[in-house]
Amino acid sequence: MEPKIIKSIMYNNEEKQIFEPIKLRRVISVKTAQTVKNMLESVVDYGTGTQAKIEGIKVAGKTGTAQKFDIEMKKYSNSKYVSLFAGFLPADNPRITILIVVDEPKGDYWASSVAAPIFKRIALGVLEYMNIGPAPQIAMVTNAENTTLLKAGKEVKTVRQFNH
């Protein structure tokens, strides 16, 4: 895509001129894009990004932990870090991209335990806001005394049964 700074020009809250994206060329092949996406899915499924995993939604992403450079000491710090997680979802049809950067986290500094869980919390909120996600799992459990409705494994309502 051709880089753009302006999306549109507006007058009196009305768009007068819209600058549509211009496709210049394909940057990477479809095969390479699929390979990279699969690698990023593996990071979340089996690697350092497991704390970003969301049940029922395929997430792709990458963790990053870096030492900060200490200008005064002229070397990398042993106590100051930047932790990040960049990801997108649903991985097969991306609608959401989120980048989490935590500058100098306190205590644990690994991105897998600092940034990935933040990504997950924000992604869950955005998924809910955008009404994206798997259908909730609903089950009804009946025994001799009660019928209980469960949604996503949590009790929603229990009704006591009466035998006539």
Task: Draw up the topology in text.
Elements: E1 8-11, E2 14-18, H1 30-46, E3 60-70, E4 75-89, E5 96-103, H2 111-130, E6 138-142, E7 146-151, E8 154-160
Antiparallel strand pairs: 1-2, 3-4, 4-5, 6-7, 7-8
Describe the structure.
- It is a single chain.
- This protein has 164 residues and is of the alpha+beta class.
- The chain folds into 2 domains: 32-133, 3-Layer(aba) Sandwich (Beta-lactamase), CATH 3.40.710; 135-164, no CATH class.
- It has 2 helices and 8 strands.
- The chain has a 3-stranded antiparallel β-sheet. The chain has a 3-stranded antiparallel β-sheet with strand order 6-7-8, with no helix packed on it.
- A hairpin with a 6-residue loop joins strand 4 (75-89) and strand 5.
- The radius of gyration is 23 Å and the shape is extended.
- The mean pLDDT is 88.
